[in-house]
Structure formats: C-alpha cells, structure tokens
Amino acid sequence: MYLTIQEIAEYLSMPETKISALVLQGRIRAVHDGEQYLINKEQFTTHFEQVEKYRRMIQEYLNEPIPEDIDVGDED
User: Could you report the per-residue pLDDT of 8-31, keeping only the tens digit for each?
Assistant: First the structure.
C-alpha cells in the first residue's frame, strides 16, 4: 500500500520535514508520480519487526539474574 509523505509521517509519528529529508537522501524508498512522493508502507513492517525483536532480546538480557561469584566469601 502506497502512502503520501503526510500519511507516512502520521504512521511513524515523525514530522513531515524529516520524512521528506529521508526520501530526498534516499534513506526511504519512494516513487515520484509527478506531483508527490508515494512511499510503500510495507518497507517499515520489517523494520518494526526487527526493532521489536531486539527490544525483546535486550529485555531478556536485562532480566537474566546475575550469577553469584564462586570466589565471594571470606578472604582471610
């Protein structure tokens, strides 16, 4: 599904100027139909899936208990 820059900005909760800049830099793929840029919404689905995957991995790492050191004890 192709959306305009304004619709993508709303979808990503980003300013339109930032989306326009990313399109002009080539960091977001877009098609120019002569009047406006159209952006395929599906290119962000993979990005959001990867972000969620890394978020879960980090959360699992942070929830992992710290192992007790075998050298802890009296050092007399």
Answer: 999 988 999 999 999 999 999 999
* Helix/strand/coil for 64: coil
3-state SS, residue 53:
helix
User: What single-letter amino acid sits at 31?
Assistant: V
Report yes or no: 38 and 30 within 8 Å, Cβ to Cβ. Answer: yes
SS3 at position 2: strand
Q: Which helix (H) or strand (E) holds 18?
A: helix 16-25
Q: Does domain 2-63 have CATH number 3.90.105?
A: yes
